[in-house]
């Protein structure tokens, strides 16, 4: 009985081992390479697979996903004999698991070495300036060469990127100085451009300001000249109208010699109104003076001794004097009376002077004298 149990246990263990060797589970995005007696037999897809136990062997498990490999910086000599360090990143994917397994022993190392040699070949034909500014060109060249070389290995290179291009420290310092000089140059140029634009704008502003000021002065002078002209025209028109009015009034009043004598007597007190005139002496010859004035006025053209009838009016357009002949006579009579009173007052004030003079004085003309415009029937005022 115990022997039967041992055999059953051995058979169970053998069955489990056979089952374990028969069933193979391949993960997603993986491919299994099966060999039979050391020779390639089949490629197992993802999922559950059954193989012949103890005959077929799952030798390799290939990852079919896109992989990323970063290579360390490699020294590369440029065309102008400068050493730069370049590190790259390769993006690739296994498309044929059998070729990747049996065509190349280590495809990662093979890609790294191929990248280094291709990079040195491409960068060797460029100078430093072109190398620093031609990343896309270098990436495209690397990708084309790698994709062509790795195609027979069952690998497709999707993308190649340059992580960094590091020139020597001395070259970095020189480049920094050059960049600093270029920036300072651009700054000076921009400053000069700004100053030039500012000067141009300032000059244009000054020009416009001067033009506007000149135009303003011109308009001001024109307006001031027009105002002066209109003012002078108005003043001349006013003076002309005043002269016409006075001239019309003279013609309307029909003046004679007695009116002129009366005006002379009215001006005599105004002569003594000055502060320097402390003493005013009426000459005894005032009568002769008045008589002489009357005789002189007789010779003046246009001033008759006696006025007979109304004179011809001067036509002044809209100006008219509505005075009757009776009113004119009354005004003349009043003027004669005032002249007579003024002559009497002058004779009384001149009495002391007559006493002091030994010579005889001529008699003053009577207010009734026709030369003074008085009434012949009135008695002289003493």
TrEMBL record:
The keyword Transmembrane helix applies. Residues 342-362 have a biased composition (Low complexity). GO terms for cellular component: plasma membrane; side of membrane. Residues 21-179 form the Band domain. CDD domains: SPFH_paraslipin (cd08829). Gene3D superfamilies: Band 7 domain. InterPro entries: Band7/mec-2_domain, Band_7, Band_7/SPFH_dom_sf, Band_7/stomatin-like_CS, Stomatin_HflK_fam. PROSITE patterns: BAND_7. SUPFAM superfamilies: Band 7/SPFH domain (SSF117892). It is a single-pass membrane protein. Keywords: Membrane, Transmembrane, Transmembrane helix. It holds the Pfam family Band_7. Residues 342-382 are annotated as: Disordered. PANTHER family: STOMATIN-LIKE PROTEIN 2, MITOCHONDRIAL. Belongs to the band 7/mec-2 family. This is SPFH/Band 7/PHB domain protein. It comes from Nocardioides mesophilus. The lineage of its organism: Bacteria, Bacillati, Actinomycetota, Actinomycetes, Propionibacteriales.
């Amino acid at each position: 009985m115990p022997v039967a149990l041992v055999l059953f246990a051995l058979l169970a263990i053998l069955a489990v081992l056979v089952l374990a060797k028969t069933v193979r589970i391949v993960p997603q995005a993986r491919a299994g390479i099966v060999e039979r007696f050391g020779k390639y037999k089949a490629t197992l897809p993802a999922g559950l697979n059954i193989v012949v136990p103890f005959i077929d062997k799952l030798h390799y498990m290939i990852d079919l996903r896109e992989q990323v490999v970063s290579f360390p910086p490699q020294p590369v000599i440029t065309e102008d004999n400068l050493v730069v360090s370049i590190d790259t990143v390769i993006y690739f994917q296994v498309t044929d698991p059998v070729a990747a397994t049996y065509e190349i022993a280590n495809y990662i190392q093979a890609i790294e070495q191929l990248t280094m040699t291709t990079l040195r070949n491409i960068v060797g034909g460029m100078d430093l300036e072109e190398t620093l500014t031609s990343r896309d060109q270098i990436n495209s060249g690397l990708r084309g060469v790698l994709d062509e070389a790795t195609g027979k290995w069952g690998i497709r290179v999707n993308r190649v990127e340059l992580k960094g291009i590091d020139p020597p420290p001395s070259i970095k310092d020189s480049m920094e100085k050059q960049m600093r000089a270029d920036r300072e140059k651009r700054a000076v140029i921009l400053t000069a451009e700004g100053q030039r634009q500012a000067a141009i704008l300032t000059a244009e502003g000054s020009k416009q300001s001067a033009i506007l000021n000149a135009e303003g002065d011109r308009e001001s002078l024109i307006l001031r000249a027009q105002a002066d002209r209109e003012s002078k025209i108005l003043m001349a028109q006013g003076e002309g109208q005043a002269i016409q009015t006075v001239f019309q009034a003279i013609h309307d009043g029909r003046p004679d010699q007695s009116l002129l004598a009366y005006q002379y007597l009215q001006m005599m007190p105004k002569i003594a109104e000055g502060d320097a005139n402390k003493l005013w002496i009426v000459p005894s010859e005032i009568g002769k003076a008045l008589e002489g004035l009357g005789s002189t006025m007789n010779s003046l053209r246009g001033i008759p001794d006696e006025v007979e009838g109304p004179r011809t009016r001067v036509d002044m357009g809209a100006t008219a004097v509505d005075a009757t002949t009776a009113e004119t006579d009354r005004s003349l009579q009043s003027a004669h009376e005032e002249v007579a009173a003024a002559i009497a007052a002058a004779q009384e004030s001149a009495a002391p002077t007559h006493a002091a003079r030994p010579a005889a004085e001529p008699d003053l003309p009577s207010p009734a004298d026709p030369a003074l415009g008085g009434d012949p029937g009135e008695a002289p005022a003493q």
